[in-house]
Amino acid sequence: MTQRGPAEFTPPPECPVFEPSWEEFADPFAFINKIRPIAEKTGICKVRPPPDWQPPFACDVDRLHFTPRIQRLNELEAQTRVKLNFLDQIAKFWELQGCTLKIPHVERKILDLYQLNKLVADEGGFDLVCRERRWTKIAMTMGFAPGKAVGSHLRAHYERVLYPYNLFQSGTNLLCLQKTSVDDVNDKDKEYKPHDLLQRQNIHVQPNDTSAPARRAKRMKTESGCVKSEEGEGCENRPNLRRRMGSFVAKPEPEKEIPIQVKQEPEEINELIPEPEKNKSRYKKNILPPPVSVVDLYVCLVCGKGNDEDRLLLCDGCDDSYHTFCLIPPLSDVPKGDWRCPKCLARECCKPQEAFGFEQAYRDYSLKSFGEMADSFKSDYFNMPVHMVPTELVEKEFWRLVGTIEEDVTVEYGADIASKEFGSGFPIKGGKFKVAPHDEKYLNCGWNLNNMAMMTPSVLTHVTADICGMTLPWLYVGMCFSSFCWHIEDHWSYSINYLHWGEPKTWYGAPGFAAEQLEAVMKKLAPELFESQPDLLHQLVTIMNPNTLMAHGVPIYRTNQCAGEFVITFPRSYHSGFNQGFNFAEAVNFCTVDWMPLGRQCVDHYRLLNRYCVFSHDEMVCNMATKADKLDVVLASAVQKDMRLMIREERELRDKVRKMGVVQCDLFEYDLLADDERQCVKCRTTCYLTALTCPCRPGVQVCLHHANDLCSCPVSNYTLNYRYTLDDLYPMMNAVRQRAESYDEWASKVSEIMEAKLDKKRDVTVFRTLLEESDEKSFPENDLLRQLKLVTQDAEKCSSVAQQLLNGKRQTRYRTGGGKSPNQLTVEEMRSFVRQLYNLPCSLTQAPLLKELLNSIEDFQQHSEKLLSDEVSADVVGEIESLLEEGSQFDVFLPELPLLRERLEQARWLARIEQAEDPVSNPCGLSLDSMRQLIDRGVGLTQHPSTERTMARLQELLTISEELEEKAQALLKARPPESLETISSMLTQVEGVPAYLPNCLLLQDTLNRAKEWLQEAEDLQVAGQSPVLSSLSDLVLRAHAIPVRLEPLDQLEVLVSEVQAWKESATKTFLVKNSPFTLLEVVCPRWEVGSSLKKKMRKVKGECVSSGKKKLVKLDSMSDVERALSDCKDSASAMFTLAEVRLKELESLCSLRAANESKLLPTADCSALKVCVCHKPAMGAMLQCELCRDAFHSVCVRGPSDPLDPEAWLCPLCLRSTKPPMDKITTLLSSLQRIRVRFPEGDALRYMIERAGSWQRRAREVINSYDLSLTSQACRVASPTKGHRNNRKLCGSPSQSQDWHVSGQEQTVFYTEQRCIPLQGLSSELEELMVEGLLLQVSVPETQQLYRLLLSGLPTTNTSHTEHTPYLTQKHSSPQRERDAITSAEKKAKRRMNREDTEIRDRGIKPKSKKQRMGTEKRRERKAASVSASDVSQSEDSEEDMTLCPAESCLQPEGEEVYWVQCDCCNRWFHMICVGVSAELAAEEDYMCVTCNTTNTGRRK
């Protein structure tokens, strides 16, 4: 009926569980005393015996029959029972009004009428709530959602159902509210079928049986079997588990009883409907008229009138009549059921309720039949096998059922079955159970519950009578949900329960110190129950949810007792519980010495509650005193203390009675009477020492505490019955004191030192002395001795631990990896340990030292906490390391150490990051790998805001860096490449990123190279200069390596392709098929001629230092020439370079021609002569090259196409190209000028064209200087010479002429097939002119004209244009003339050398001495020739010869240092750059100027 469903049960904490060893298990009382300091804090504890301790089950199963108790679960719970009682009263009230109570529904929930009534009463009553409109507030308090007009529904239900009852309770004439007839009820409001909760509302209308528990009890007589709620009957919101509910009750009785049927309404306002089955008429006209007057017999007792007979109601109880309109409130119709007038209603409802208690079942069970019923119930309820139902599920379901009134579950419990009648579950001596030999040890075992209560350490051994449940065990047979309610044991004694077999038993317990708190909470939450039953908790019929008690501050603990386990409860510990299923348990009480004071307190408590005692405490104490000599000294001491209190109280009470006037005394042996015959008539305490009696009430007595409650007779009539006089009691106490005197003295010493203050504490040796005394006097084991032993042991252990902590005997955790060792104390434990040292009853020398150590540790902790509370930084690494070193010295577990280690790792990590980001130590910045490594290290670190921020920054930096790297890599690999602007835009994003980004740096380098390239490309085209092909090609190649889109690249590539196309065209024009020469080798002057001739040049100038401005260009190979041409800045420089190559070409060719000519002179041995391409001696028909003048076998080379045609024949080495005509070359030059790109081939072509043009002009001058007619005549004169192909060259006769065309002797070895230009008499200028014409790689007509002119022989007529130097040979010169010439040349050379040396010394340059590599005669010849040549070209004693370079085209180099070279023949000095000689060649080889070389060549010829 509650709007809020019960909250799910939360299990309380577990109680202690002990598992004793066999040694500890041997003495149960010693073990219980040992665990008592721990277990009494929770009230209950569980003990698991050793695994091998398994006593046999000795109960006679066949003979065991019992009648169980009936337990309706929701009647057990205190708060639920209050609600049920309230509903019973409401149901009875409406039953007497002839109506059936229907409990309304609101918001699809059964309305909690009790809560509604209580809330309205708390708010001030119905009228006040209506006036102040508090119904919405009440609805919200009951758990209904606001805003649904629930308050108006609650008001209507209260007004119809509860308001009349409250008017009746207030004393107003109770009249029913207006009822609608049965016909007016809504058809949808069906009659409610009784089940579960509502069956509990069935009230039996019997005059002598109207109390709520009796009604509920008798109601159940009509039921049989297990009644279950069916699906759909108000249970649609509950799971199937909660639909299967049942009640197990006794057999039905045949008598028929009329229940009040309580019907549920879905959501409509409930109606109170009269009983339909009873249709007794209330009207006067339906009553047979008596012989007397109707008016005299039927009048309304309210108005006293008899009119309106049809509105008169007749009471079914007293036959009084009332008008319907005279009732309060008036009725509109006559009820159809039984009706009671206000007088009868008050008389019936005011009968007192009977005390609540369990009913006994009407069926007698055997153990087997009860087990079958119990298992069937549990399996049906949970719809699963009993062994598969979890204990947690059963526990939650149990507390749900006891807290709800919507479901009625009834179970049975076989409790308090006397073991004396049916036999204990443990084997006993003399019992019917035959014990196997190996089980005989269990007969005398202390844990056998038949022995425990009466063992020597138990005080109950001095109770003479056998008390079932205390001294004799009780048996308990339980089923699922059967429970034992909150209670404490009789006389606040110990109890022990053993579960022999079956399913677990769930226990709940509260410690003894919380007993009064628990009682106060239950009285507060269910005051109605305690008003009628003050000793309700002693009836074992009331339970309350542990969660409710815990919510009010009561400490509750729980445990599940399984088969074979003990549960012990301690004095005054409340405990309750329930069974998980079918099981069999046995329990008994026992009392130890420590219980004695509590036992006397319990008797006083019972006296206040008027509760009977199970035994007389005074009688037990006196029995022990009579056996003082046999008492244990500890027990004797306890008895002596208890007797002192008992005698003092007894003396005071007897003095009080004597003062009252009681003078009669009589000795009475109360121990001969049964306990129920000597109870105080007032407080029901068992009397033993004294009691008051009066003759007016025989067999009745009162204790001295209630002397005024005996009777009304004069006190002088009372008789004081006593068992002992005070004079008898004192000797008994003295005997006990004497027995305990030595122990008391020892105990007083122990108590004194145990209670000593700080400045009076004794050393631990005193404690050891007292222990030794107890051993010598054989004091029994007791609490004080155990405490002394415990204190001494603790002191010794503390001393050892303190010394170990002070010595620090362990390796530091900081060095061994950290962690808490098993025996290591925490700081809190050490602090507690230090407190323990100072709290010990004895003093230890290590305490102050350990206190000082603790202070050091606390200082360390404060320092650590301060450091740990600060932000993490790289600067605290050293401080943390010092703290770790300090903390590692303490033999204490310091939680700060692992935190400091974590902080150290964090600080080191931050330090690594700072170091990596430091521009000094790491100028490149953080690399991606470094960031990843730092992040990987940081991932394993403990989280901290500083590290998290740094980690986030690193991760963000890594993410940004990776994105930038990916973008840079993509830009570098983009095809087609991106523009310069895109890359620049991307690189602007990189700015400010503190990381080393290789791809970005590469991209930046690419950008820089692109900018440089663009600048170079722009520089190539500035000022109208034509770019050089090498630079252009280099730019193009470099551009291809730059992954950037370069706008000028396409134009440059077009230029390069045009150059390549031009080269291909020029190659086709110049080169012959399969030519071994390149285009540049063809169009460029030959830098060397011949492969065997080595030029002899040497450097005659001293060590020269480069000026740094102009450097000599090495032109020793084609690559040098090509490089020199490419390095030229303009065409003029290129032309100058080619001019140098031309000079070298002419010099080399002159030398080659001279060498070849000299090689072909007649010699003694012609076999050694090597000629031709085959390098064999000359023989037979030979061809002589007009250019190199070498001879070739006609069979080895290809001769002229027409031997008769006068055309110059060139050897394969000299014929390098096709020699195209000038017009074709002019076409190539035109296309070259359009390209506007300089390259070596183009420069060489221009030079070749200029050279050809210059040569043509000189050749025309020479040709025109001669008379063509003379030339024709000379040709005709020479033509008649026949047989020129048969001309022989003689070998071996030195006296013969050197002219090859003169016929000689017959000893000719070889001959030439074609005519060659005769060199005799030919001037060097004409020869050089012809050679240069043959060197031209272009065909011009002047070449053939000059050749024919020279071939035919020149006339002797001198011209004004040219002077021909005579060709001197040995044949034409005399020895005297030669000597004169040499002498004169030597003198001139010497004078020139002296002047040059003086000039050089003045200029600070020391000439290097020249090596003499030539013979005297040859040198003389060269010097004579040089003198002759120098005489022709310049004056003899000119001073300008010493400062000016005599080269034809002097470049006039400038600078601090200029390179010079001296001719070995004429001793003239030339600029190296002007004559094309490198410093290396000048230093290694001899140098001969062009003039000397030409002269010497002519002389050799």
Task: Output the strand order for the largest sheet.
Answer: 1-2-21-18-23-16-15-4-13
If helices are DSSP runs of H or I spanning 4 or more residues, what is the number of helices? 49
The major pleated sheet works out as: 9 strands, mixed
The value of Rg in angstroms is: 71 Å
Question: What's the SSE blueprint?
Answer:
Elements: E1 17-18, H1 22-25, H2 28-39, E2 44-47, E3 65-66, E4 69-72, H3 73-76, H4 78-96, E5 99-100, E6 102-103, E7 105-106, E8 109-110, H5 113-122, H6 126-132, H7 135-141, H8 150-169, H9 196-199, H10 212-219, E9 263-264, E10 273-274, H11 294-297, E11 312-314, E12 321-323, H12 342-349, E13 359-360, E14 365-366, H13 367-382, H14 391-402, E15 410-418, H15 419-422, H16 449-452, E16 474-478, E17 483-487, E18 494-502, E19 505-509, H17 515-525, H18 527-532, H19 546-551, E20 557-561, E21 566-569, E22 575-579, E23 583-590, H20 596-609, H21 617-626, H22 633-660, E24 664-667, E25 690-693, E26 701-702, E27 719-722, H23 726-754, E28 762-763, H24 764-776, H25 783-807, H26 813-816, E29 825-826, H27 827-839, E30 842-843, H28 846-869, H29 877-887, E31 892-893, H30 896-917, E32 926-927, H31 928-939, H32 945-973, H33 980-990, E33 995-996, H34 998-1020, H35 1029-1041, H36 1047-1070, H37 1079-1083, H38 1118-1127, H39 1131-1159, E34 1180-1184, E35 1191-1193, H40 1222-1235, H41 1240-1265, H42 1268-1278, E36 1289-1290, E37 1308-1312, H43 1324-1335, ...
Parallel strand pairs: 1-2, 6-9, 24-27, 28-30, 29-31, 32-33, 34-37
Antiparallel strand pairs: 2-21, 3-14, 4-13, 4-15, 5-10, 7-8, 11-12, 15-16, 16-23, 17-22, 18-21, 18-23, 19-20, 19-22, 25-26, 25-27, 34-35, 36-37, 38-39
Helix pairs in contact: 7-8, 21-22, 22-23, 23-24, 24-25, 25-28, 27-28, 28-29, 28-30, 29-30, 30-31, 31-32, 32-33, 32-34, 33-34, 34-35, 35-36, 36-40, 38-39, 39-41, 39-49, 40-41, 41-43, 41-44, 43-44, 45-46, 46-49
